[in-house]
Write a structure and sequence with these properties.
alpha/beta; binds adenosine monophosphate
Amino acid sequence: MKRIEYTEELQRQCADWKAKGLKIGLVPTMGYFHDGHLALMDHARSQCDKLVVTLFVNPTQFGPNEDLDAYPHDLERDSQLAWDHGADLLFAPKPDAMYAPDHATWVEVPELAQNLCGASRPIHFRGVCTVVMKLFMLVQPHVAVFGQKDWQQQAILKRMVRDLNIPVEIQGHPIVREQDGLALSSRNAYLTQEERAHAPFIRKALLAAREQAQQGETNAEAIKKSIRQSLERDIPMGEAEYIEMVDPDNIRPVTAVTNPALIAVAVRLGKARLIDNILIKVD
Ligand code: AMP
């Protein structure tokens, strides 16, 4: 596996592979790998000739009071893990290799970025779309794999690809969890022992909500209220930033359970902001 820092080298290597007719898979990440990232790599690896993993804590997707500087990192460990999971290339640029000082071009899908994480992180998805677009231009992958933990991100990127006719197939990968149900996240490293013990109740509340819908409750407000009550009871030190039921494709809030519907939550727990979601299908 090659580890590179500069865009020119990334572009040259990927163009060379493409000229040879090789199928390229891309897994964009911010590093500090856990089994969720590794599952995405395995998934891409299994269907491509060359796997490109990118590791970039993208400054343009962080707001002024967010955790850009505190974001956990361990490049040597990540390099070893990417290598173990079949990466041919790990692209780990410094911010100035990705953004010119006078960078002025942005890609946005504002309509899908109004709710959920976009509501409290107003510039987040603009930063995500712009950096992912840049990675698509550099790598020109056939397939790019994203996790369904960040459902809204995946929906926005799918729309960007469709609207701009980008020749890449976006694949979503199911959420990888700890045994107790907590969705894996690099930010779980921020949790104290006590917070970590309470965090799995997020998943439990979502499972109960799905059960409630499958038992016949159709009112979105009633389901959201049950989730809020469960979270307040089981994670008293946490604070729900949002609890929403939305259409999984266009991320618009729904008032009654649609088939399918997505329930998504963000919970602030100590220094961490944890997100999770569940797709609801009713018979
Ligand atoms: P990040 O490094 O957090 O930006 O995540 C990089 C990619 O890994 C994104 O596509 C995430 O959605 C995905 N990802 C993060 N956590 C998980 C998880 N627990 N299960 C599946 N995919 C994940």
